[in-house]
């Protein structure tokens, strides 16, 4: 009795006593066009869903340079589904499996999947491509192919080079939507990694899989089916942590040393213009060269990266050292001695930063203004010299007070030496008025004083900057 598959024409080759045929002969009968259409889904009933189970074995992961925003992946992709039209257990009970390569793929239906984030891909192999298909007696098909692919990975580089990146391989159905074909990961170990897998610039922190559906329509031209709907998709995601050892040795530690070199100028004399300028500019150029070599490996993005914050901080310290030299060198070249109320930062900086032009303009303004010239005639200055027991002009002093808000000009009053010393007046004994002693410093002493303070201030500020920076990159 001859057996035929349902709806098979009478002239189709018989499958009876299939064990007597070779594998090629039996397959040519089983997948003959009279009973098998490779363009149709492996279902007899309309509306049934074909489930395709996927798994992957990863041989090699190579993240590319950051400016390329991609990575290379070598992997073995396996797809498993059931095609009842290829079940042959009734016709060839002694046959275990039908195994073939590319020629077998051309005879049967194979799901068309594509990688949505693919830049380029190809099948691996030498003389023939590494494709293997096996058909079990119950019609279960296992399709394996070894591939290499370059996939896009949209990296977030805000914390570069202390960043973690998540890259993925996205598999989607190309022709059939989710109501007809459903992609699923294998339940047990859907993705396995080779024991010989090693990364250089990154370390593999974690990986996971998930299933989803994506919306396809004619406007976006996402799928090839040309119809709107939800298409089944699979995603394999792995988390990579960038190794910072290379950047510490080649960028951060050298930049710290360059910044520290710029502080050597604080130990040179303020009038040593040639060595201080040479040292300051050479450290500036050295650091810019070091930073530019690292920036070439990064894409030009609009946001600020952690490496750029470090660059701005270090360049700010080097530039501040140059500005400090210009400041103390200008003070060093002054001629007049400076009178200070106290020897501290407030009064020294106030005396050095007060512009001379403002004082000259004030004198001209006082001479040209009649109101100001009138205010200079004080009664104590008009007293008879004979009333002064110590001679004319002995105990008359001018005191300059703060500027009035209306005229922005000083108010000038007079005090005698006895008033200042607390003697010669009734009730002057036991006076609680404060006594101020003024100190004089030469410009050279002031410049040296500033340099000494800079030797301590700059390193402390740089240490504070490092504390804030490394807290940001590791704790936030």
TrEMBL record:
The keyword Isomerase does not apply. The chain crosses the membrane at residues 244-266, 309-332, 456-474. InterPro entries: GABAA/Glycine_rcpt, Neur_chan_lig-bd, Neur_chan_lig-bd_sf, Neur_channel, Neuro-gated_channel_TM_sf, Neuro_actylchol_rec, Neurotrans-gated_channel_TM, Neurotransmitter_ion_chnl_CS. The keyword Glycoprotein applies. It holds the Pfam family Neur_chan_memb. Residues 364-392, 418-438 are annotated as: Disordered. One of its GO terms (cellular component) is plasma membrane. Residues 365-389 have a biased composition (Polar residues). It catalyses: chloride(in) = chloride(out). Gene3D superfamilies: Neurotransmitter-gated ion-channel ligand-binding domain, Neurotransmitter-gated ion-channel transmembrane domain. One of its GO terms (molecular function) is chloride channel activity. Keywords: Cell membrane, Glycoprotein, Ion channel, Ion transport, Ligand-gated ion channel, Membrane, Signal, Transmembrane, Transmembrane helix, Transport. It is a multi-pass membrane protein. It is found in: Cell membrane. Residues 25-243 form the Neurotransmitter-gated ion-channel ligand-binding domain. Residues 252-470 form the Neurotransmitter-gated ion-channel transmembrane domain. Belongs to the ligand-gated ion channel (TC 1.A.9) family. This is pH-sensitive chloride channel 2. It comes from Danaus chrysippus.
């Amino acid at each position: 009795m001859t057996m035929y598959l349902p709806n098979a024409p009478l002239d189709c080759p018989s499958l009876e006593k299939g064990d007597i045929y070779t594998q090629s002969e039996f397959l040519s009968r089983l997948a003959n066009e009279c009973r098998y259409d490779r363009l149709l889904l492996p279902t007899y009933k309309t509306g049934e869903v074909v489930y395709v189970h996927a798994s992957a074995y990863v041989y090699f992961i190579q993240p590319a340079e950051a400016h390329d925003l991609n990575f290379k992946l070598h992997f073995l992709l396996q797809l498993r589904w059931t095609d009842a039209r290829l079940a042959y257990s009734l016709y060839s009970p002694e046959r275990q499996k039908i195994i073939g390569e590319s020629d077998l793929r051309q005879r049967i239906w194979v799901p068309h999947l594509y990688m949505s984030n693919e830049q380029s891909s190809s099948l691996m192999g030498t003389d023939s491509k590494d494709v293997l298909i096996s058909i079990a007696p119950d019609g279960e098909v296992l399709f394996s192919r070894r591939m290499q692919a370059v996939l896009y990975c949209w990296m977030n580089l805000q914390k570069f080079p202390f960043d973690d990146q998540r890259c993925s391989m996205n598999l989607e159905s190309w022709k059939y939507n989710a109501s007809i074909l459903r992609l699923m990961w294998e339940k047990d170990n859907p993705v396995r990694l080779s024991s010989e897998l090693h990364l250089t610039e990154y370390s593999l922190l974690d990986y996971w899989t998930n299933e989803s559906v994506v919306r396809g329509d004619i406007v976006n031209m996402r799928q090839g089916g040309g119809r709107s709907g939800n298409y089944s998709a699979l995603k394999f995601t792995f988390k990579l942590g960038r190794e910072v050892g290379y950047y510490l040795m080649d960028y951060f530690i050298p930049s710290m040393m360059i910044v520290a070199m710029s502080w050597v100028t604080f130990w040179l004399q303020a009038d040593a213009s040639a060595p201080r300028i040479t040292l300051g500019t050479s450290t500036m150029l050295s650091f810019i060269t070091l930073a530019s070599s690292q920036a070439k490996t990064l894409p030009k993005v609009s946001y600020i990266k952690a490496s750029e914050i470090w660059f701005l901080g270090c360049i700010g310290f080097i530039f501040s050292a140059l500005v400090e030299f210009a400041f103390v060198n200008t003070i060093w070249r002054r001629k007049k001695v400076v009178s200070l109320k106290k020897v501290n930062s407030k009064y020294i900086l106030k005396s050095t930063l007060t512009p001379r032009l403002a004082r000259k303009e004030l004198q001209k303004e006082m001479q040209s203004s009649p109101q100001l010239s009138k205010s200079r005639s004080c009664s104590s200055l008009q007293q008879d010299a004979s009333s002064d027991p110590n001679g004319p002009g002995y105990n008359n002093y001018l005191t300059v007070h703060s500027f009035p808000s209306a005229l922005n000009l000083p108010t000038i009053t007079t005090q005698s030496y006895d008033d200042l010393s607390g003697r010669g007046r009734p009730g002057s004994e036991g006076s609680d008025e404060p006594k101020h002693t003024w100190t004089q410093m030469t410009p050279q002493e002031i410049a040296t004083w500033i340099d000494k303070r800079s030797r301590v201030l700059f390193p402390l500020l740089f240490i504070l900057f490092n504390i804030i920076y490394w807290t940001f990159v590791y704790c936030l």
